[in-house]
Specification:
The structure is a single chain. The chain is mainly beta. The protein has two domains: 302 residues, no CATH class; 143 residues, no CATH class. The chain is built from three helices and 28 strands. The strands form eight sheets. It has a five-stranded mixed sheet with strand order 13-14-15-16-17, with no helix packed on it. A four-stranded antiparallel sheet has the order 5-28-27-26, with no helix packed on it. It starts with 8 loop residues before the first strand and ends in a 6-residue tail after the last strand.
């Protein structure tokens, strides 16, 4: 006889699968506080020869996705198929008080299943709505202390479903059998910063787009590339970004976002553009950073960023297309921390955004031939590629989890890192059992603090 599946208990509408502290609502609108400890604060730290080391580890508990979602937007998730809250590691931004951070989910649980020769994108919980999640760390515990759902102008959920037929991946149910509707409001949120007025700016992969939302999560404006022609959205859509960004690779749009001291935003494109086509984009190591002025509502600069060779980022990896930019952090002045990674390894570099490196309105910003992405050595061709300095190779720091997407800086020499656990999902038909319940990957949402041997600021 097969063992019985783990029993999910209910506490204030939130599902828990392992012991946790009491879960209490923060307010009528926002959310819950959950506590769990999987790493003791007194546990030994992990060292490496040059001094970079993990000094603490905190883990998020299993929180049922239906309970979490329906507390924010009642009735949005009827069946979470056993999926827990996850994906909050898409970005990380200090919330002001020590140990508190703003995070953001991506579009929600999703995977891929091959049907014949086609890879279909699945959304097993299509009612899930992306949310900004405020967390607090206490020793080896992570507490969810607030949540803000993303909504359109009417206050309805934006959802995480794709926007446009033919441009975005077609959405399917968890078995990849039944097609789901597109939603022009849908957002695949990845980057997050909070402005001085309390509003948020988010980076989105679909457009790719830069999204301004109120402190309560209502979309105020979505800035998209010129020529996107997104119709039917229930919030303002502004074509203010360079048209060349229309050539973004599917599922590889904007990923990182930083807020500079003067108020400008810098958005990072996750992967090189398919410019002029797929072959160039798959083999290129050059992606782009875009500088945006919220005061002027326009792009003011663009920069070419060159990845390290894929075998340098992840020894043994040979596919250049595995390289991704996932996080940007402002360090002060014109200095920026840039994370480049694969799913198994990551490195952090420092760059300076100087006027001489701006390629906006140059031949490299347009669809010239050869394109920026076709150049084997952009610097030799006269492209002012951003110079960079390696800060830390996280692959060499024991205790750092894989797929780090959220990065923040705490004080002069401490990094705060948060992984994206993909809601515990894996690809393929085995992601769900015969009853349609998730076969969890076992990957937890984990926040680690890494002490560097030299100060960053």
């Amino acid at each position: 006889m097969n063992p019985c599946p783990p029993r999910r208990t209910e506490l204030f509408g939130v599902n828990l699968r392992r012991p946790a502290a009491l879960v209490l609502p923060l307010s009528a609108v926002l959310a819950l506080t959950t506590v769990v400890g999987t790493a003791d604060a007194s546990a030994p730290t992990h060292h490496r020869p040059d001094g970079a080391r993990v000094v603490s580890t905190s883990t998020l508990p299993d929180i049922g996705l239906a309970g979490f979602s329906n507390r924010l937007l009642p009735g949005t998730v009827r069946d979470d198929r056993g999926v827990d809250l996850g994906g909050i590691g898409s970005d990380l931004y200090p919330a002001g008080r020590p140990g508190e951070y703003w995070t953001v989910t991506d579009r929600g649980p999703n995977g891929q299943i091959e049907v014949g020769e086609e890879k279909r994108r699945t959304f097993p919980v299509p009612g899930f709505n992306p949310a900004i999640v405020k967390i607090r760390t206490v020793g080896g515990r992570v507490q969810v202390i607030g949540s803000v759902p993303l909504t359109n102008s009417a206050g309805a959920p934006v959802t995480g479903l794709p926007n446009q037929r033919a441009r975005d991946e077609a959405p399917y149910d968890y078995r990849a059998a039944e097609p789901l509707p597109y939603n022009p409001d849908g957002l695949d949120t990845e980057g997050l910063v909070r402005a001085k007025d309390g509003s948020f700016w988010l980076a989105d992969e679909y457009g790719p787009s830069l999204v301004h939302v109120s402190a309560r999560g209502r979309v105020l404006a979505r800035h998209v590339p010129k020529g996107l022609r997104l119709t039917g959205a229930n919030y303002p859509v502004v074509e203010s970004l360079p048209a060349v960004l229309l050539k973004r690779k599917v599922n590889r749009g904007f990923e990182g976002l930083a807020l500079l001291p003067g108020g400008d935003l810098v958005i990072g494109l996750q992967s090189p553009l398919l410019n002029p086509g797929k072959e160039a984009g798959e083999e290129s190591r050059t992606t782009r950073l875009v500088r945006f002025s919220p005061r002027r509502n326009k792009v003011t600069a663009e920069y070419a960023y060159r990845f390290d060779a894929v075998g340098t980022v992840e020894p043994g990896q040979t596919k250049t297309s595995e390289l991704k930019l996932s996080a940007l952090v402002a360090l002060g002045g014109d200095r920026l921390l840039v994370q480049e990674r694969t799913d198994k390894a990551a490195r952090l570099h420092e760059v300076r955004l100087r006027p001489g490196n701006d390629i906006l309105d140059s031949r490299w910003e347009s669809a010239t031939s050869p394109s920026l992405e076709q150049l084997a050595d952009p610097a030799a061709a006269g492209v002012p590629v951003l110079p960079k300095r390696l800060v830390v190779d996280l692959n060499k720091v024991p205790g750092v989890p894989g797929k780090i997407e959220g990065v923040a800086v705490d004080g002069p020499s401490t990094l705060v890192l948060l992984n994206d656990n993909d809601f515990g999902m894996t690809d393929g038909p085995a992601a769900f059992d015969a009853r349609g319940r998730l076969v969890d990957s076992g990957v937890e949402t984990t926040l680690v603090r890494v002490r560097l041997p030299r100060p960053l600021r």
